[in-house]
């Protein structure tokens, strides 16, 4: 299965399940407009973005719209959004950037 050069996954650590339907925007450098926008699938993943883009060296941001998702879950959250800011130097690699999420915290790491 083919996948985008940048993928993500959101796991709701409070409930121990994927966070599906979260809108995610992908930006490069200081661009005001995203290069791609998608919502996480049933497994909490974005494997292929609807918009194609070429991976270039630079700074990227994944911006997760959390408030609407928590509201839909009828849960409160301290964080209305989360932004993961990362640097790509090797354009031949795949970058998987997961978000581990709860109502009062989140963490991330470079996955595989």
From TrEMBL:
Q: Which UniProt keywords apply?
A: Hydrolase, Purine metabolism
Cross-referenced InterPro entries, in alphabetical order?
Answer: Hydroxyisourate_hydrolase, Thyroxine_BS, Transthyretin/HIU_hydrolase, Transthyretin/HIU_hydrolase_d, Transthyretin/HIU_hydrolase_sf
Positions contributing to substrate binding: 9, 45, 109
Q: Name the EC number(s).
A: 3.5.2.17
Looking at its record, which EC class is this enzyme?
hydrolase
Please give the catalytic activity noted in the UniProt record.
5-hydroxyisourate + H2O = 5-hydroxy-2-oxo-4-ureido-2,5-dihydro-1H-imidazole-5-carboxylate + H(+)
GO MF terms listed in the record are: hydroxyisourate hydrolase activity
Q: Which SUPFAM superfamilies match?
A: Transthyretin (synonym: prealbumin) (SSF49472)
Question: Can the keyword Cell inner membrane be found in this entry's annotation?
Answer: no
Query: Domain Transthyretin/hydroxyisourate hydrolase: where?
Result: 6-111
Quaternary structure? Homotetramer.
Role this protein plays:
Catalyzes the hydrolysis of 5-hydroxyisourate (HIU) to 2-oxo-4-hydroxy-4-carboxy-5-ureidoimidazoline (OHCU).
Task: Name the family the entry cites.
Answer: Belongs to the transthyretin family. 5-hydroxyisourate hydrolase subfamily.
The name under which this protein is listed is 5-hydroxyisourate hydrolase
Whose protein is this, by species?
A: Neiella marina
């Amino acid at each position: 299965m083919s996948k985008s050069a940048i993928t993500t996954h959101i796991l709701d650590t409070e409930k121990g399940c994927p966070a599906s339907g979260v809108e995610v925007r992908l930006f490069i450098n200081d661009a005001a407009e995203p290069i791609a926008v998608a919502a996480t699938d049933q497994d909490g993943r974005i494997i292929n973005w609807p918009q194609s883009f070429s991976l270039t060296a630079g700074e990227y941001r994944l911006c997760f719209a959390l408030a609407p998702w928590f509201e839909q879950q009828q849960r409160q959250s301290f964080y209305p959004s989360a932004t993961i800011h990362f640097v790509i130097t090797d354009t031949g690699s795949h970058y998987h950037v997961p978000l581990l999420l709860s109502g009062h915290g989140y963490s991330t790491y470079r996955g595989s």
